[in-house]
Amino acid sequence: MSKRNLYLKTIPVDEAVEKYTKAVRELIGVKREEIPVTESLGRVTARAVYARFCSPLFNAAAMDGVAVVSDNTLGATEKTPKILQPDRDYRVVDTGDPISEPYDAVIMAEDLMEDREGNISIIAPAAPWQHIRSVGEDIVAGEMILPGNHRIRPMDISVMLAAGILEVEVITRPQVAIFPTGTEILEPEEVDSEKAAREGGIVESNSRMFENMVTEEGGIPHRFPHIPDDYQQIKTKISEAVDRYDMVIINAGSSAGTEDYTVHVLRELGEVLVHGVAIKPGKPVILAVVRGKPVIGLPGYPVSAYIGFENFVSPVLAMLTGRGEVRRDCCEAVITRRIVSSLKHKEYLRVKVGKVGDKIVASPLARGAGAAMSLVRADGFCVIEQESEGVEAGEKVLVELNKNLEEVEHTVVSIGSHDVIMDVISDMMIGRYGNMYLSSSHVGSMAGLMALKRGEAHIAPTHLLDEATGEYNVAAIRKLFREPMVLIKGVSRMQGIMVRKGNPLGIGGIADLTGVRFVNRQRGAGTRVLLDYLLKKEDIPVEEIKGYSREATTHMAVAAAVSGGSADAGMGVYSAAKAMNLDFIEVGPEEYDFAVPVKYLELPHVQAFIETLKSEEFHRKLDEMGGYRYPHAGEIVEISSR
Question: Exposure winner among 60, 78, 374, 630, fewest CB in 10 A?
């Protein structure tokens, strides 16, 4: 056969990639398998991963020192120190030791003075729960710790094991067959320079490059000896490989030469979607599908082969593996809040990153040494050098990214109130759109609205009650903002009091919170605003709520404190109580919505967020979690100016 492959036309690269990946996506389902967590490094999660256990599993000492009953330390001062006796008044503990009743605080060893009899003196009272890591402080059973389509890193393995996960479902690595072709091809070990020069032999090296690129991008390569320019041999080898492997790469034989048979073979075996792309070098690319499998022919010149792989093989591998491209980028970002740092250390501050308007913003995550989840959630690190006292809010910093800049530009930056649905939406956006992301920081409704006002976020989840009207969110937005604003309607969720199973203290409502150990939300949180409103209605001073000043930043953390026994009750949403198997005393429904400046409403990633809110899949997940209604989810409400 000596027919030439004449290019009738070439098509743009983006068009070729879109056309081919769409065809492959419709034909091929991603394969999944379950493997041990300890063997999962570099693999990609097939679905979201949820914690089985809390971490810590018990209330634990955060410092070396002594465990005490905080009430017994009241009144201690430098002038009137308190003397504590061993066994009766305190118990010696090391970092990580369990703390059980009656003890509810730890005093650091360096703050103690001990006499010969073992008595210790203290010169300041201990606050309840100081230097104690509460059950679920880092990881809460039932919370999402990894989203789907997430490449597993060393810190992810640690967190999964800490959360009681031993097996994880991952996307199966695609098996890729690689065939060099050409009668003139020589294997490297066969090379004789004089013979090669005399007979025109070419050292075959492209396939070894492909092997490593496939491995680097999450596939398993199978490189075969080269096939001579023989139509029937090429057809037989490709046909056999298609039946056995997930993808086939053919190198050389894709151009317009009389012995370039690849395109004819692929037309006989299947369908050639693209032959010839407007790219230089690398025009003679073949994109085909044979019996439902992607088969790609790449040019023989090394640079063309590399460019062809990067542009056409990589997108298919990214789809089959769920990994996406792995790049290391740095960027200049505006830090969203003041960070004070020690002069003694070089600090790697974990941050969430997104582009808001014309600037990239970095929102700091938890800084504690025990906060392993901040590593998992981080988009990168802001390095604060030694001898620096920190950075001020609004200051520009350099961020070393764990994601590429394209992802940053397609990220919805959310700062505000917490709800577990934010994790669900984040996971769904990745699954539905592939290149749309949600970065969510939980600081409370009011703090979120202030961040939105400063231009540090696209959206602010909020559930602020206006006592005068009984309306949620609109009044606060109207009061704070002068620019055009809208409210994206979210969910109606049930707020209530979480108590241990069986409600052992018989708590029936707000009036019964006096005299019990309570865990509160942080100042500015909508749940705390609601609590204050209800206490005011019942004429209950906040001083009568034991633990009013004990703050948790999420509903799940409140539920974990109640489940772990360090609190008798806490305010939160039904879904958190259900996740931790707690009883729930309903207080009433509230509106959890999203404040958005009009100027951000048409951004593609914000539109993806809205469409996810409206989706039936999201509504099914809400039904599974319980405690939510969604009659207006995704609707846009314009906020009139003051």
Answer: 78
